[in-house]
Amino acid sequence: MADPEFVPRWFTVTLPVYPPVPMVQASALSLATALASKLNLTDIHMSDERWEYRRPHATEGQPRGLIRVSVRENEIRIEHRFPATGLEQFERLVQQVTSSFAPPYAPHVV
After folding, report:
1. Is residue 4 part of a domain?
2. Using CA of residue 58, residue 62, residue 63, residue 65, what is the dihedral sign?
3. Any idea what the Cα angle at residue 57 is, between residues 36 and 74, rounded to 5°?
4. What is the pTM of this model?
5. CA-to-CA distance for 24 and 110, rounded, in angstroms?
6. Residue 60 CA: distances (Å) to CA of 30, 57, 65, 79
7. Cβ-contact 43, 31 below 8 angstroms
8. Contact yes or no for 24/71 (Cβ under 8 A)
9. Could you tell me the CA-to-CA distances from 34 to 4, 19, 21, 80, 83 in Å, in that order?
10. Domain enclosing residue 51, as ranges
11. 1 in a domain, yes or no?
12. Helix boundaries (H) for the chain
């Protein structure tokens, strides 16, 4: 009998940040520009409490996947649902997202 294969369904990480991210439209749009150039984001939703950046994707023979970055005043959450790649690619995704934060809103991960 063959060993079962690990198939990831969802990678997620929530990063508490300080100082808080200023939840203003100009910052949300600036971050959207930085993220879009790295992640090819297709959906952007902004409110006073949360910004959400998403990229749905489909891989043949797999459930519909999704990359989502949610930003709140005190946390950044990065998700990859039904990834076609492994944990190493998720780690690169986290690095790309965290490096997209630039002045004037450059929180530090706690």
Report:
1. no
2. negative
3. 50
4. 0.81
5. 22
6. 33, 10, 11, 20
7. no
8. no
9. 39, 20, 15, 19, 22
10. 10-102
11. no
12. 25-39, 87-100
pLDDT tens for 68-89 read 999 999 999 999 888 877 788 8
Residue 109, domain member (yes or no): no
Number of domains in the chain: 1
Residue closest to 76 by CA, chosen among 103, 96, 104: 96
Q: Phi then psi for 77, rounded to 5 degrees?
A: -120, 130
Residue 27 lies in a domain: yes
What confidence tens digit (pLDDT) does each residue in 15-55 have? 998 888 888 888 888 888 888 888 888 888 998 899 999 98
CATH number at residue 37: 3.30.310.10
